[in-house]
Every structure is written in structure tokens, then in C-alpha cells.
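User: Assemble these into one structure.

Assistant: Restating your components, then the assembled model:
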Amino acid sequence: MKELLLGNEAIARGLYEVGCKIISSYPGTPSTEITEAAAKYKEIYSEWAVNEKVAAEVAIGASFAGARACCAMKHVGLNVAADPLYTASYTGVNAGLVFVAADDPGMHSSQNEQDTRNHAIGAKVPVLEPSDSRECLDYIKLAFEISEEYDTPVILRLSTRVSHSRSIVTLSKREELENKKYIKNPEKYVMMPAMAKKRRVFIEERQKKLLELCEKGSFNSARMGDRKIGVITSGISYEYVKEALGDRASILKLGMTNPLPVDLIKNFAQKTDKLYVVEELDDIIESHCKKHAIEVTGKEIFPRYGELSQNIIKQAILGEKSEGVTSPFSDLPPRPPVLCPGCPHRALFYTLGKEKVFVSGDIGCYTLGALAPLNGMDTCVCMGASIGALHGYNKANEERTGSKSVAIIGDSTFIHSGITGLINIAYNKGTSKVIIADNSITGMTGHQQNPTSGYTLAGDPTATVDLEALAKAVGIKNVSVIDPNNLSESRKVIRQELNKDEPSVIISRRPCALLKYVKHEPAIVPNIEKCNGCGLCMQIGCPAISINEGKVRINETLCVGCGVCTQLCKRAVLTQEIKE
Amino acid sequence: MKDLAIMIVGVGGQGSLLASKLLGRLFMDAGLDVKVSEVHGMSQRGGSVVTYVKCGKKVYSPIIEEGQADIIISFEQLEAARWLPCLKKGGIIIMNTQTIMPMPVITGRAAYPEDIQEKLKECDIRLFTADALSLAKQVGSEKATNTVLLGVAARFSDIPKDKWIEAVKNTVPQKLLSLNLRAFELGYNL
């Protein structure tokens, strides 16, 4: 049977067919749909872990137990999971173990750009790179075979365009596997110096064997066209090269990019006149070629950052440009993403803006609060950093800034890696104030459950983290809860907490306006006659509100009647009657 | 059927994902190779969203760049103007006449361009406009705007109408089906 699947869905299908029994992941664009799609197969135990490190450890443990296991994450998630990965490379596996990491060149939905192959080189584990959904399905199977045959975790590297493109795949049946027997073997599974030293030697032997594999494996193959131009490429870049050059070039497509073959590349180089390396992000294949004295052209003509494309390649290699319709438009206004109408984060940022505090931000929908007109964030680095960084900021100012600063972190991000930062504040006598923006869901990645939401990935009710009790248990005495959409009350509480010489946790609690169970009020109908166009309602940056010819307009299609604007209007233009 | 490259452009939340899924299904069932490239994550939150649908004997790159689109289906006027350079000369734009103000316009830092339709008419393109939002409201849900536009698109396709209807049936949730079929007809008969 044929299906049009996302790369991510094809990975899940491959996991099903290859007999994978466990997937544990933390959501992150562009990897999220892998685990969501896997959860639809009842044969695969699928879970949202609290973060990528735990997800990787769960997969490692399942592999030790003898079941084929996987963890999936975005590129920055692999940083969090790097610790278990680097040592799982030493222990190797019992049943197959695959890390799926999705890179985001061009940063469609990420705080940085990273090339996952660097981690693979560091951890000394093989990397496979599919180019489309069919290869996603094939390579995940191959990854498990390599993992078991060579006793190593394998990384499957995706990128946004592979993860989020649909192409046609042919489905087959699941291979049902018995768990392999676990046999106690501390020499292999307990990594302390005496054992690790021996496993370090094993890794070098494994590398040699993997090198032999990548010289002869069918996943690395030359597709000969015109021999004047030779291109070495991998992953999504192959598709761009093929579209740009067709048969006007010969292509060496590498399905495995760590380790990299030497003889195969040398042979290919001999058959072509001029050799190019086309790879997104870092110059890993190119450096490899240069190290082995193979003459190639690479990053001197291709960009080191952002996504590649057929046009970039065509222009760089052939000097040809494709032209479209000449546009009569210039200086079109951009359309950046915004907080949704009714989003509870909007009111919170408005209130913080009024208090003029330093805001140490974090990763989630609420990062959009950094944009105009809210301009509500001073810093944002990585998942969980808001809390640790604010503590450092305040210590550097000898805690004098404690009353004029807050960290803001979402419920899911707090669980991911904010808790440790909070314990650090309490333990080290900090005074920092932490606001947990609890919207009862992992929002930005498209509504995933988490330990504060009370439901598992499968939608089953489960234990819920009690944020208030948790904050108290780690030593925070001042814990309060606000409804951010109640502007006067939340401002009163925030001001009161800011004035304390002790650390505080303020839980700003209101569910995401996009959640199905959240009932919306009718759109606000402005009393235009009374409006003098003062613009107070515009300060919250609601996409449903605009001013036209000096009068407020509410877009009734967008407005969900959250009522925050009605609290700002001083002339009773924007009013709301809430029926109980 | 020759190779076809379609862009669906609009504002996050307007329903372009369903439209691209439907087109992908339609072309696959017609025996063609297909690639559909979607946008997920941060760019969906009310931002400018573009989806690519390509079909033919064999499709390689999932994306469409300057001068490569045969058809642009735009859910919003400014977005049609934004992505215009991706259209081949003489290509087709199917545009919903709805306008949605982006945040820089709302905050007064930029102006929404005037006369988008007039300017587009002067370009080397074939422009078709529809008040798809109103038509969708007519059948009972503004969420059917995408199906109205697909109805318009169906008129320019080599694929027979009954195959389009089959694709609607295969993509749209059952309880919204009759509403969407009516929306499709309204677009098709414009």
C-alpha cells in the first residue's frame, strides 16, 4: 500500500515495521510528529519524557533490556541528551538503539543552527541521512541493523525539509521480535574507568569496521551523469542538487555521513573533472575530502548557514539564475508570528511591562512576547536558562536587582530543565522571582501533554506535578497563583512579590486559548461612537485589534472575547458582559 | 500530465495544511510522484505561511523558489503580493480577497499596501479573485475558505472534477464533509 507521509510519519512507520517497541522523546520542532505518529501504533510504547536526556536514558535502558528502542528530538535536544549519548557509545547496545535528531537549518523554529554530525563525530557513532520519506522509512530500519551488528547507538539525522515534507512511501508489515535476553555484563554495561578504558579500545575497532561498511554499503552510491561536474552530497541537499543539475552532473550520494568513506570518494573524484561538495550547515564532508588531499570546491561558493536550495546550487555551479514575475511591490510589511488572540501570555507581558522589570526569558510560545509592541523580554538562551541566568544576573548585581527582575518560563519548559535552576536559587540564598506561565500544555510545538497537564501522550489520566507544592518543597516560601487576564489583581501580586527580599514563585495560570476545552466568549463589539482613538488597547499587541480612521476596530473572526482589552479602555468603548 | 508546482500561501491558522494535504492526495491518486512541504512550529503562530505542492513523473526538491510556481493559491492579499516573484511568467494566482493586518501594520510601524489587486492585474500573470471567506460563511463555516479556493483551483486542472471531490472526501473529517462539498462547488462554479 502507498501513502503520502511526512518524513516524520515515515520514521514512525519505519519504527513500527522494524519491530521497535519503545520510543521516548521530548517534543521540539521539527521532530515532534515522529513520536505523535509512533503513538498511533499500539505495538510501540510511546511517551513524552520530561526532557531529551531522560528520553535518551529511557531508550538506552530499553535497549539494555533487549527491545529495539528510539528517542527523537530536535538538534538542540541532542545537546541535552549528549551526556547519555557519548557514554552509550561506550556501552553499545543489547537490542538496537537509534537517536533521531532533526536539524533546523535557517532556524524556522529554533534559537540556533547546529549540525548534528558534530555530535556524531564527538560520540563516535554512525550517522544516516535520509533525503525523503521513503528513505526515512528505509534508513530507520537500516539504523537498527547497523546498531545491532556493530554494537553502537546510531543517529538518524533529519532536517526541517525532510521532516516536514510529504512524499510517497510503500508500507510493509511489522517484524515482530522477541526481546533479546539481558545477560549481566559489567565489562560492557558499567562504565567506570577500568571498564571504560577497554570499551574505548573497542570503539576504535568498531570505527574501522564502520569505515569498511561505508566504503561498500549500498546507501552510499554514485549516480553517473555528465562527468564534467561531480557532486558529493547527502540528505535534503541531494534533492536540491538533482533538481538543479539533473543529468548535467554525476552525483555521489552519501546515505551515511559518519564515518565517511575515503576510497569511494577518491574513485568518484577520478571519474569527474571538477568536484563539488554540497552540504547544509558545516563543512564536514568537505573537510574530510581536504584531509585526504581530494580536491573539492565547497563552502567558498556555498553558504555556511541557512538552508540550501536548487537555485543557490544552480547559480553557484552553473551561474544560471531563475527569474519569476517582476514584482511591482516594494517594502511589503513583514508578517512575524504573534501571540494568538486570547493568549494568556499577552496579559502577563503587558503587566510586566508596566512594572518595568528585567525579564529573563525562556523557550516557548511566550518567547513571542519579546516582539513589539510588548517588547517584554531581555534575554532568551535555551530551555530552562531563564532561571539559572536570572540567578547569575542578580548575584552579579549583589542581589540588588532581585526586586526589579523576573524569570519567565512555561510549564513544560519548567519541568524540562527549570526545576534544577529553581533549586539552585533556593539553595544558594538567591532572591530571584520566577514566574511559571502555566497554560496547561506544551504550546509552541502543537499541544503536547506534559507532567503538569495530567495526561500522558496516549491521553490517559496520570499523576500531575503540583507546581505550588514543588516550589515549596525545594525551599521557596513565597508561592502565589495569579490569573494573568485579571490585570489589576495580577499586577498587585507581582508588585508585592517583587518587593520581597526572598525568592518567589508566581504561577501565572490560564489554559492556552487554542485548547479545545477552553470556551470562548463572543467577540467584543466596540462602541465606536465613544472611541477617541487613544490607542491604550493597542499596547497589548492583539492581532484582533486595529485602529482605522481614528477608531478602534475588532476583527470578529479573530477575537475570542478574552476581555483583556476591555480592562484597558477608559471610555467604555470596549466592554464585555460575561454570562455565568 | 506535465509537472506542476503549486504554492499555497496565507497566514498561520487559515487552513493551508489541509489544502496541501488534499492536493497531495489528489496527485498521488492520479498516479503522479508528489512532494508536499509544510510549515509547523513557530511560523504557524499568525505568521506568513507557505506550503509547496509539487507533482510530476519524478519530484526531487520539495521547495519552490523564484520563477518556479505554476499556480499560487493565496488565502490573503498581502501574502499573494509577497510571494509573487515565485510565480512563473504567465502563471496563475488564485487569491482570496480577505485582508489580515500583520502586527507591524497594527502597531502603525508599516502600512498595508493599497491597490494590491490593481497592481497584480498589471503583471504578466492570470489573476482570479474570490471572496472565499464570505462564500465559506455562506455554507456555514469560515473554516471552509480553503475548500472554496480549491474549488476555484480545480477549474484549472487536467484532473476531472469527480477526482477532486473524491480527494475532498478522503481528506476532510466526516462531520464537516457536506459543508466542505458545498464550499467546493461554490468555488468551482464561480
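Residues 2-178+187-216 of chain A form a domain with the Rossmann fold fold (CATH 3.40.50.970).
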